[in-house]
Write a structure and sequence with these properties.
Layout (H helix, E strand, L loop, with lengths): L2 E10 L4 E11 L2 E6 L9 E4 L3 E5 L1 E6 L8 H4 L4 H17 L2 E6 L5 H8 L7 E4 L3 E3 L24 E3 L2 H14 L5 E4 L18 H13 L4 E5 L2 H9 L4 E4 L5 H9 L3 E3 L3 H9 L7 H12 L1 H11 L2 E2 L15 H6 L5 H15 L17 E5 L16 E6 L2 E4 L5
């Protein structure tokens, strides 16, 4: 079995920088030894990582790999072949940028996960929600307003409609039956959907509680799209574990999140990308106006979350061809937050969100060897991530090299 030894490396363990010149030994897919003093190992595949940082693989906790079209109304009519090939490309590119795990927030399914497990293509670990649950006229209802339909329901590329407690229970059970890692619900208005204003509170408390109960029966949790203070506070009070986006959060609702031990996953890069490129990708001016509203509140939401002590994850929520902007999230957050706090969000905090905090997102003995080697020091300079993976010198998942190291 291959043994890999990284020597002379700066080690960011997912929490702190623990040495400037250490040694990490990988064996059997796990981290076998961490020596902050360095030296000691000469057998195996030895990589001299002087001037580089060894750290846990990055985790993006909010992606939509099936979003072939940035316009989600049009995405519903895109062929399954197009969506699947797009997902393959998105996941392979994310891996080369250093992302070793993705949490899909609506769309990805068991078929895609099975293809990944069978190594039909190479990509990060995938934690998928199946179809997101939406009420009629909610954020997951991408039917054109005014179009009269038969009333026989709606299931799109990334979401499905479930109205009433019984339908929500059934829809949640169906996603979990198909292997979903968690359940996604739409709990407030959104920008991409045509019918609902941002301020709209969605799903009744009984419907949200039903989704939470069904997820808990499977030992998992609910993630909720929610922008406004009211939507955020009622979700965490009802047991929702992660709030997605949260741009309009205020001090009171942030305190509610912290008190309930919940997480928030901001996704700021998608707003910048959509404002720059959305019109070219079929977004109407009405939808772009909604994007401008949430984008304007994004940086302030980071300050509020930080000051409230909320555990904040790292997500991007990019659509269509805009996945190339994935690493812009680092630079946007750096306008408010310290680099090391952003790295914690993308590693150890996101691993906790995935319920894998003991094994992923850390460099410690016994943890799974999902690792990246980065040129430079990202704990002080996040620009190392802006070159679309050029500064990611190697990538490992469970000790297996996915991006080979090449000396320069």
């Amino acid at each position: 079995m291959t043994k890999t030894v990284f020597t002379n490396c700066r080690i960011f363990d997912g929490i702190d920088v623990i040495t400037q010149s250490g040694t990490v030994v990988i064996e059997g897919g796990r981290i076998a030894r961490v020596d902050i003093a360095g030296g000691g190992e000469t057998d195996g595949d030895v990589i001299d990582a002087a001037g580089m940082t060894l750290m846990p693989g990055l985790i993006d906790a909010h992606v939509h790999v099936y979003a072939y079209e940035a316009n989600l109304i049009r995405n519903d009519s895109a062929s399954m072949v197009a969506r699947t090939l797009h997902a393959e490309q998105v996941m392979q590119s994310a891996l080369m940028r250093g992302f070793t795990a993705l949490r899909d927030a609506g769309g990805a399914d068991r078929d895609l996960a099975d293809a990944l497990d069978a190594r039909m293509f190479d990509g990060p670990r995938l934690f998928y929600s199946g179809l997101a649950l939406s009420q009629t006229g909610g954020h997951g209802d991408f039917r054109v307003p005014g179009l009269r339909l038969c009333g026989c329901g709606y299931t799109g590329a990334i979401s499905t409609i479930a109205d009433g407690v019984d339908e929500v229970r059934k829809a949640a059970r169906e996603q979990l039956r198909w292997g979903a890692s968690q359940v996604k619900i739409m709990a407030s208005g959104g920008a991409a959907s045509p019918s609902d204003p941002i301020w709209m509170v969605q799903y009744t408390e009984a419907e949200i509680a039903a989704a939470v109960e069904e997820a808990a029966r499977w030992g998992t949790y609910v993630m909720a799209h929610a922008y406004t203070p009211e939507a955020i506070s009622r979700c965490v009070r009802l047991g929702v574990r992660t709030i997605e986006h949260g741009n309009h959060i205020d001090a009171a609702s942030a305190a509610d999140v912290a008190a309930h031990g919940a997480f928030v996953v901001p996704t700021l890069s998608t707003y910048n990308s959509l404002i720059a490129n959305g019109a070219a990708h079929g977004w109407s001016e009405d939808l772009l106006d909604k994007i401008r509203t949430v984008q304007a509140a994004g940086l302030e939401s980071l300050r509020i979350l930080r000051d409230a002590g909320v555990a904040t994850g790292f997500g991007t929520d990019l659509l269509g061809a805009m996945h190339v902007d994935q690493c812009d999230e680092f630079a946007i957050r750096a306008q408010v937050l310290d680099p090391i706090d952003i790295l914690r969000s993308a590693t150890s905090v996101n691993a906790k969100i995935l319920q894998k905090g003991d094994m992923l997102g850390r460099i410690k003995v016994g943890a799974t060897a999902d690792l990246i080697l980065v040129d430079g020091d990202p704990t002080t300079d996040l620009s190392v991530f802006t070159a679309d993976g050029a500064n990611i010198r190697t990538v490992m998942i469970e000790g297996a090299v996915r991006k080979p190291f090449a000396a320069r």
